[in-house]
Amino acid sequence: MPFINDILKYKSISFVGLEKNTGKTETLNYVLSRLCSFPNTIVGITSIGIDGEKTDQVTKTSKPEIIINKGTIFVTAQQFYYQKEIISNILSLSNRSTALGRLVFSQAISSGKVLLAGAGNTLWLKEVIEEIKDFGANIVLVDGALSRMSFGSPSITDAMILSTGAALSVNMKTLVRKTAFVYRMTQLEQVENELSEKLLEIDKGIYAIDKQGNIIDLDIPSILMIENNKEKLFNNGTRLFVSGIITDKLIQFLKTQKNIQDIEIIIKDFTRVFCSIENIDSYLQKGGKLKVAQSTNLIAITVNPTSPTGYNLNSDELIYELKEQIPLPIYNIKEI
Questions:
Q1: SS in 3 state form for 214-242?
Q2: E strands within 120-247?
Q3: At what angle do helices 277-285 and 172-186 cross, to 10 degrees?
Q4: Are 167 and 20 within 8 A, CB to CB?
Q5: Of 13, 80, 82, 298, which has the fewest CB atoms closer than 10 Å, so is most exposed?
Q6: Lowest-pLDDT range of 91-105, 142-156, 181-195
Q7: Domains of the chain by range and CATH?
Q8: What digits encode the pLDDT tens for the residues 28-39?
Q9: Dmax of the chain from CA atoms?
Q10: pTM above 0.85, yes or no
Q11: CB 253 within 8 A of CB 230
């Protein structure tokens, strides 16, 4: 991964897999092994949920363990901390607990394998990242778990590395199409900064933004209530902010509007899109607009051409096809 120097430009990076077994942990281990060669660089690492198991709990296939180096600051739950295969120094314990006990903040005295289990929600995860930095980490790596894309949100880390592969689809065209769609969603235009700051503070509901930039609560708790509140939707203009997710049901409704070319939907970030590729593309082609309150800094993509069932795609061809649609560094970690 020649762009490893670029990684050090950021204070925090999330590693997100589009599906389990797409090579996310391999990518993380590669970055960890490279960062340790940079002098005066202290690396921190944590996870959302559980990661680092020897066997995938869903597919029951073997998976790479997380290997950290001497000096790495890591955060994991008490139950997993006792299973570590390294010597380490405890820095602190969290006041809150997970299902596996309190979070242990520790620094490795030797190199070896660890199991990671971290904060269970985005707000707590952000606090954990800041605490790791306070202990001296120059950069914090966040390992995703269970394909929970929302924890790759740009509100949590400065940058993101995405892993894709045959586990997502053994059909190369489908795999490329799905990956390219996620890339396009990460590139959605961000609204103006002043509005962005206000919208990111809103946790629930649907709002209209009038021509003067006023944010008006439509008193619609979620998109699930759209059907019963259609008459409210455009009373204050055609620029709407949805604080939660958007689904096919909302997009289908918007596509039927005669003034679709005037409609602009704003979401917090790309992780809020829970729609089919066909629906989003159709909405955009008809003239509808989709923007985000916070843009995403996707810096690279890694691929795993082998599926959990053993099916192999041609790695060079896969990378070539992805690069035709995605102007980012794309690598097969095992071939570097």
A1: CEEEEEECCHHHHHHHHHHHCCCCCEEEE
A2: 139-143, 159-165, 206-209, 215-220, 239-242, 246-247
A3: 50
A4: yes
A5: 82
A6: 142-156
A7: 4-186+296-335 (3.40.50), 193-292 (3.40.140)
A8: 999 999 998 888
A9: 65
A10: yes
A11: yes
